[in-house]
Amino acid sequence: MTVVAIDGPAGSGKSSVSKGAAVELDYAYLDTGAAYRALAWFCLENGVDTLGPSEIIEALDDFDYEIGTDPEQYFVRVGGEDVVEAIREPRVTAVVSSVARVPEVRSFLTELFRTIIRTTEKPGIIVEGRDITTVVVPDAEVRILLTASEEARMARRSAELSTESAAITAQQLSSRDAQDSRVVDFMNAADGVVTVDSTELDFEQTVSAVVELVRDAA
Ligand code: CDP
Ligand code: CDP
């Protein structure tokens, strides 16, 4: 089985490109950011609004989470409830970094990701996040850092939103990256990690670049 690990900052194209490449390769796809978001959502739903580390760690005991790994039938459920859209809400984005910096959360989710990877039935899996190339599967067959200039990343995120929320989003995006960077380094490629800079590439070209790296390694 081929494991493809992809890290990068917000808006670099990780989720969309990983999904597109997984479809083309007939691989499974794992969005690890969705797991961190699902836990943040679960904490908010359960009134852990101060989001102190001990409350978050306690919430892990009741966190019943399921994620789909079929790139064409992607789902995220918490306690059986579909949360695909809810986990993208701004209130979740605003607190997800505070949840993700708790070491117990990281080790809990890392184990879960490794189990999902181990039990994949497809010929390969593309796993994307912030610490996949360095912590979750540092021995992955293909390790990629997907980057894009800050300007391009902001423009991509803004294009998905109304103009009124675009300015707020740009500010939130860079402060979230700054906060996340204090926990894991996803701005610089670790040894053996190939950088794919998508600033000048469109979506299809970025998918092709990833697919080519995977085919070269197989
Ligand atoms: O899609 P976007 O770039 O907005 O973020 P995401 O991939 O959904 O990740 C949401 C948050 O989860 C990040 O801002 C990180 O705080 C956290 N995360 C992490 O700590 N480690 C990962 N492997 C993936 C996400
Ligand atoms: O997961 P991440 O935050 O890294 O980014 P994403 O949500 O996959 O991508 C953000 C947006 O950029 C999506 O609408 C993609 O279609 C778009 N994109 C693009 O315009 N050009 C690329 N080369 C890659 C992604």
TrEMBL record:
Alphabetical keyword list: ATP-binding, Cytoplasm, Kinase, Nucleotide-binding, Transferase
GO biological process terms on file: pyrimidine nucleotide metabolic process
Record carries keyword tRNA processing: no
One Pfam match: Cytidylate_kin
Compartments reported by the entry: Cytoplasm
Catalysis performed (reactions): CMP + ATP = CDP + ADP; dCMP + ATP = dCDP + ADP
Main location: cytoplasm
GO CC annotation terms, alphabetical: cytoplasm
Ranges of residues in domain Cytidylate kinase: 4-215
Enzyme class, broadest EC rank: transferase
EC number, as in UniProt: 2.7.4.25
Annotated binding of ATP, by residue: 8-16
Database matches in InterPro entries: Cytidylate_kin, Cytidylate_kinase_dom, P-loop_NTPase
SUPFAM superfamilies reported for this sequence: P-loop containing nucleoside triphosphate hydrolases
The UniProt record lists the keyword Transport: no
Molecular function in Gene Ontology: ATP binding; CMP kinase activity; dCMP kinase activity
Membership in a protein family: Belongs to the cytidylate kinase family. Type 1 subfamily.
Name used for this protein in its record: Cytidylate kinase
Lineage: Bacteria, Bacillati, Actinomycetota, Actinomycetes, Micrococcales
